[in-house]
Design a protein that fits this description.
mainly beta; 123 residues; five-stranded antiparallel beta sheet; 41% strand; six-stranded antiparallel beta sheet
Length: 123
């Protein structure tokens, strides 16, 4: 073990988030919309936000796995999926890259009707 190791397993870490974040929300922290190299921290909230002693709201974000989002768009297997840049958290996804935050890739296809899409988080 390296002496400067902070977490042996960094799959789930607590972060300051928007107070409205609830368990199951996709969350993007400090990302730059549409930028291929500044995606920020992407995770799915394992816990809903709670206010801590420092008056900030915190939630534990999971960085590895496949999670369910929603979209009315058709999605192909392996297609990139994005969270709306105006949101920075939530479950409503899009396949439109422009002005949105990349969160991962679809692991199954779905038709162009409102419904669930399974997304593998990419960090």
């Amino acid at each position: 073990m390296a002496l400067n190791e902070v977490y042996a397993n960094g799959e789930s870490i607590s972060y300051p988030v928007n107070a409205a974040v609830v368990s199951g929300n996709f969350v993007v922290l400090n990302g730059v919309a549409s930028h291929p190299h500044h995606r920020g921290i992407v995770g799915v909230a394992e816990t809903s936000a709670v206010v801590a002693a420092d008056t900030l709201s915190y939630a534990t974000l999971r960085h590895i796995g496949v999670f369910t989002g929603t979209t009315a768009e058709a999605v192909a297997v392996g297609e990139a999926v994005y969270l709306d840049a105006a949101a920075t958290y939530g479950t409503a996804m899009t396949t439109t890259a422009t002005d949105n935050y990349f969160v991962g890739h679809a692991i199954e296809a779905k038709g162009a009707v409102a419904g669930n899409v399974q997304i593998r988080i990419n960090n």
